[in-house]
UniProtKB/TrEMBL annotation:
It comes from the Eukaryota. This is 5-demethoxyubiquinone hydroxylase, mitochondrial. It comes from Liparis tanakae (Tanaka's snailfish). GO terms for molecular function: 3-demethoxyubiquinol 3-hydroxylase activity. Keywords: Ubiquinone.
Length: 110
């Protein structure tokens, strides 16, 4: 893997980790004030916030996939395959059950 490509992947992973951490904070905030927000915005307002966050995340990941495909289509073709949601759900359950998940990494990525 070329240094430029590795740098791009490292950058993407850092941004993705920060974005996921931010999304988790947004959802935690929603849960903390769900009663108040439901009274003010209703359930539809809370769901609209969730949908907006998820759409933004989806657009972000799609732009990353486009950038990788421009770099090396043969190498990253697998990114265009449908997601196996069962495996992803299992992976997420395992990941989030691990100690320290969701905490920012104090060490810089190398």
């Amino acid at each position: 893997m070329q240094s430029e490509e590795k740098d791009m992947l490292d950058r993407m992973l850092r941004v993705d980790h920060a974005g996921e951490f931010g999304a988790n904070r947004i959802y935690a905030g929603q849960m903390a004030v769900l009663g108040a927000s439901s009274a003010l915005l209703g359930k539809e307002g809370a769901m609209a916030c969730t949908v907006a966050v998820e759409e933004s995340i989806s657009e972000h990941y799609n732009s990353q996939i486009r950038a990788l495909m421009e770099k090396d289509p043969d190498r990253y073709t697998q990114l265009l395959q449908p997601i196996d949601w069962t495996s992803l759900a299992l992976l997420l359950l395992i990941t989030f059950s691990m100690e320290g998940v969701g905490q920012p990494n104090p060490r810089p990525h190398s």
